[in-house]
Amino acid sequence: MRRRAFLQTGMAAGIAGATGLGSTPSHIRTTPITAEGPLRLSSNENALGLSPAARRAVIDGIPEANRYPGAKRRELVAALAAKHGVARESIVLGCGSTEVLQVMVQASATRRCALVTANPTFEDVFDYGIPETYRVERVPLDANMAHDIDRMRDLAALSWDPVLVYICNPNNPTGTLTACSDVDSWIEDAPANIRFMIDEAYFEYVDDDGYWSAIKWIEQRPNVVVARTFSKIYGMAGMRLGYGIAHPDTAAHIRRFMCQVNANELALRAALASLEDGGLVGRSLDANTRAKQVVYSCLEELDLEYLPTQTNFVMHRINGDLRTYRERMREHDVWVGRPFPPMLSYNRLSFGLPEEMERFTEVLREFRTKGWV
Amino acid sequence: MRRRAFLQTGMAAGIAGATGLGSTPSHIRTTPITAEGPLRLSSNENALGLSPAARRAVIDGIPEANRYPGAKRRELVAALAAKHGVARESIVLGCGSTEVLQVMVQASATRRCALVTANPTFEDVFDYGIPETYRVERVPLDANMAHDIDRMRDLAALSWDPVLVYICNPNNPTGTLTACSDVDSWIEDAPANIRFMIDEAYFEYVDDDGYWSAIKWIEQRPNVVVARTFSKIYGMAGMRLGYGIAHPDTAAHIRRFMCQVNANELALRAALASLEDGGLVGRSLDANTRAKQVVYSCLEELDLEYLPTQTNFVMHRINGDLRTYRERMREHDVWVGRPFPPMLSYNRLSFGLPEEMERFTEVLREFRTKGWV
Lengths: 373, 373
What we know:
Two copies of one chain form a homodimer. By secondary structure, chain A is α/β, with parallel strands linked by helices. Chain A has 13 helices and eleven strands. The longest helix of chain A is centred in the C-terminal third of the chain and has 22 residues, at 280-301. The interface between A and B is large, with 73 and 74 residues.
């Protein structure tokens, strides 16, 4: 499937010429192709790959890849500011949104601060050296698999010291939403010692009237930072580019902790081209919807409970031990999720292309015939 | 010149085909070409650009740029470990060596620590949020423009708290060496509270018997970290890739503060290809030596004192005000250095291609006829 998609861009022949590697087949042989390699359904990537416009932009940028990024960095900041209707000073580029999350954690660290998150949620905020200076409070998701905003509020209200609140919405690994009206009312009432880090990595995938961006807060509330990424809907996970949106004062503070000149020249160019590619988001959404339908049908057929998702992945029951399930999938050349305790009777399945999900469901049905799920 | 160099790779036509942009001229028009744009002699970049092998590797990697880097990251770590004869666990990849320096600063921060550096030296270690928790001690270079190791030692010895020592060798912006025997004897005697950050960004350019790498220390001394980069001799500044080399325990500590998954997939591939390109270092050195001779001849002819350099840049007198000099150069489409106080009667000039330096010297001679230098 990947090979076909790649060939459809009409670039393979030209690239083979450009690389001097000779014929197209020899180029294809040196490139991992999903249809020939394992099915990679473990990391919430976008199987469509870089958009054709982004691929062209990368190639065009090669003669500039020996120069420290400057002009394209400014261009991307301006484009993002225009896209979101905020000041340029509100945009902080990161090496993935991961760097934005990391830096928020670092920039808020004090001896007595707390980090309040859902459980389970995306782990990156725990993954840095500084969290050992935090008191970490993990609040279980509520019955609807949303952030338990009431409990998180109560916990945060106990502290006069800085409290960093991480809200991943939609939440990874559950794919579920937290009502933005609940988040809004907390932000509205919260004192300044409570700092909100709203992770909207999967923003574009959401189709729900109760969901909107927290960007609307950043002008009035310097204690709100929103993280976005080019890794998901834009298919650029390998390019490592994300950004934070915050009040200019907050952005300036965060920026002082960022890696200087963090974004790669080719990533900047790919991002600019992706933003200008008006069809990209629609294509990604369409492929994702079709992939989701293939998976939902199979899970329903096999009576495997799943959490309806607002993202490019789904959490579903596996009727057994996650470790064994993952190993067996790997033996069938399918890479799936990772453990998200305490949900160890579920697997987080990323959506590949619809055709890839057909292949996945064949394997899952085979597992059922063997009594493995 | 850049256009010629680019065309010489034989890739322009193929790339134009690959991008679907049509004929070569239209592609060339969209790409900044030094010969048509300003002469960029301000950022110590390598004007040769990415090696042809690295360019091919970038193009080959595009179909993988939607995946989080994994295999290539491990491959590059293994290649660097083999190159330097150290354990894989000793290698820490960074978003440029800048990230390694930044993280060392962050990972060593305590309420009472000191940061001891030369003056002037490379500024990146001062550029993060955490240095405000440091007591910064800048020790002027000695009469030979080397780090004044004796004074730095004396200062560091006053503290029982952590002392982070930054030694940029050869030093940026002076291009001068500090005798490695002096650095060695300090490292040999230093207590564990003194942590050495040895920046060897320009290592490959040095031609001096008194110079060697500090990598030899990392096994026995967990308080030594060496930083290297792909930005200079490898011509990859825009790709943002560098690395630290340290004792496995130190590397593990540093890694906890790094941005997770920091290196871009295409950068990893370009780095691997560059390491495998046996001729790359020689080509870069050759171009640099020829460029240096062009500049030295002109500076001597104009009787403008310069510091003989062991790098891809040179610090030279300008007989006047640096700000005015830089502005006038910019009016002549030449970008040169930035202020490095207290050396404000000098300019830091980066070496471009030899032909580019011919163009620069024409401008400099014109300045002399006008009485500007």
